Amino acid sequence: MDAGSRFPLLLYGRTLRTSRRAAFALAILLLGLWYPVSLQWLAWPQPPAEGWLMAGGVVSLAFALFTTFAPRAAYVQPLRDHLRLSTPIIRLAVSYRRIEATRPVDVARTFPREALRRGERRLLAPLAGMTALAVDLAGLPMRPWLLRLFFHRLLLSPDRTGFVFIVSDWIELSRQLSGRLETWRMSQQSRPRSPGIGAADILRETSGDGRSP
After folding, report:
1. Which of 40, 56, 69, 151 is the most buried (most CB within 10 A)?
2. Number of compact structural domains in the chain
3. Please, which residues bridge with residue 94 across strands?
């Protein structure tokens, strides 16, 4: 079966969009201050502040450009034998062997407002009325502290072992994932097993070796 569609993770899209606005504003401020200082139109700030202003402005602009294109790298995609979870900094393969079940969940009930931090409340506010797809796992593909380090906290299921994917079309994601998961499980069941050597075969070989020619 071919690779499934890439479903953008709305959580990362909103996070990066907020960071992009702040980064662009900071870049405009720093570079806007650096230009008149570099031409000595302003007596303050004094050198070497001029170089720091330019460096800060360039870094802020680079980060703003990064956040412009980074949301394209944040998605979940069902593949032939695993589920790909991609973010702008890391890509994780979740084997179908680990997946126990998929289920639709209400975002507001899964992440109640009182359990969220202030920034997370603002982040989830437009998404609270949506339905997400939860993927329950038999075990995490990475150590929990590594998952919390590289992935957004709200991507992890708060009540079970697994992930919560907030995407624009959870029904299509569920359909594609369930189809590939079922195909993979059927292929595992129909795979021929290598014949083992039983005790009778071992005794037969041993007795045969002891016969005189």
Report:
1. 151
2. 2
3. 83
